[in-house]
Specification:
Structural class: alpha/beta
Order of helices and strands: HEEEEEHEEHHEHEHHHEHEEEE
Number of helices: 9
Helix content: 25-40%
Radius of gyration: 21 Å
CATH architecture of the largest domain: 3-Layer(aba) Sandwich
Strand order of the largest sheet: 7-6-5-8-9-10
Distance between the termini: 35 Å
Strand content: 15-25%
Largest sheet: 6 strands, mixed
CATH class of the largest domain: Alpha Beta
Shape: globular
């Protein structure tokens, strides 16, 4: 499948082995409704289950005519740029430049859902997560809120919205290891339950996971992705795929480097490891596109000891984000998807935000 011109504008800096978004129709001058972007899995040889549709009740739309975009700006060295003014930004909606008022830039608190995959891939390192999560909380502003979700074979809300770091610490102590991974259901819960009110805050999910769903839940990745876009949530993924990949490759190398007899004896394990590596590669592709499309970021630490620095970097990004407001020129309240692009006057700067939003619907 060929990427459309609009998708290329958003993802010129991201390289994927296979395209995961559905092809989008090109923008037209009469502001036609834009197709909803979709995540698609890499085709598998076995029969795939039918993809679920998003029902009208899933929609969480902008309830006013004003749109807020959380925007992160980095320089050519990857450092945060935090001294820009309204005149430094250009906002385009469906290819059309939007006017920015004197109040376009505002300080906005952030609501953050911390999510942890407590399945077997992370279970032995939950203490590293607890320590990193507590350090993350200390870096937020006093008015920012946090909630905590744990998922494995179940999805549990361990802490509802709070500004209390003490309550978060108590909730973190209740994170216990489990089996399997209902990753997609956890994303859906965060989008529909934690971000179902019309607050004025920025919204973010930070999740520690390998992103490999066990298929035991009720939601597929595409449905969860659309729900996150509707809820205007930026997703930051701290992925342990590199850690798992290194472990699997080391075992695989040890099995295939021996004699032919040993390799044949362990053929089932060799095939299992190769399949595991393929699934990790596919998961990374999905996670990369999910985070980029929602305005977040994908982190791939090589050890669990690096979680402290990764979570600290996410907190720093949230502190340096701009709350960019504008009133769309397109006044049609049809519930359609509007594609958004943010640029800076300085071409050396790179801006990061979600790919769009859902308009209000009467």
């Amino acid at each position: 499948m060929v990427f459309s011109r609009l998708i290329l504008l958003f993802f010129t800096s991201v390289v994927f082995g296979l395209p995961l978004f559905a092809q989008l129709s090109s923008f037209s001058a009469n502001a036609q409704r834009q197709p909803i972007p979709k995540l698609r899995r890499k085709p598998e040889p076995e029969v795939r289950k039918p993809e679920q549709e998003v029902s009208p009740g899933d929609v969480i739309s902008v309830s006013t005519t004003e749109v807020m975009l959380p925007v992160t700006v980095r320089d050519i060295n990857g450092g945060f740029v935090s001294q820009l003014t309204r005149d430094d930004f250009r906002v385009f909606e469906d290819g059309r430049q939007q006017p920015l008022s004197d109040l376009a830039l505002r300080q906005v608190p952030v609501d953050v859902v911390l999510m942890v995959d407590a399945s077997s891939s992370v279970a032995n390192n939950l203490d590293d997560f607890r320590r990193a999560a507590e350090g993350f909380a200390t870096r937020l502003a006093p008015e920012d809120r946090i909630s905590l979700i744990k998922f494995d074979d179940r999805v549990e809300l361990l802490q509802d919205w709070t500004k209390s770091r003490f309550q978060l610490r108590r909730a973190l102590a209740r994170v216990e290891p489990g089996m399997f991974t209902r990753f997609n259901d956890a994303l859906m819960l965060a989008a529909r339950e934690q971000f179902n009110s019309d607050t004025k805050s920025r919204r973010a999910v930070i999740v520690l996971t390998d992103g490999i769903d066990s298929g035991r839940g009720a939601t597929n990745l595409e449905t969860a992705f659309q729900a996150l876009l509707r809820a205007q949530v930026a997703v930051y993924v701290v992925s342990n795929t590199e850690i798992s990949r290194a472990t699997k490759r080391a075992e695989l190398d040890s099995l295939v480097s021996g004699s032919d007899a040993i390799a044949r004896f362990n053929q089932l394990r060799v095939d299992d490891l190769r399949e595991g590596l393929r699934v990790l590669d596919q998961s990374e592709q999905n996670l990369a596109q999910l985070t980029a499309a929602t305005g977040g970021r994908l982190y791939k630490p090589t050890t669990f000891n690096a979680l402290d620095s990764v979570y600290a970097e996410v907190a720093d990004e949230l502190r340096h984000q701009y709350g960019l407001y504008y009133t769309p020129l397109n006044k049609v309240r049809d519930g359609g998807f509007r594609r958004v692009r943010v640029e800076t006057v300085n071409p050396a700067y790179k801006s990061q935000t979600r790919i769009g939003y859902f308009a209000p619907k009467n």
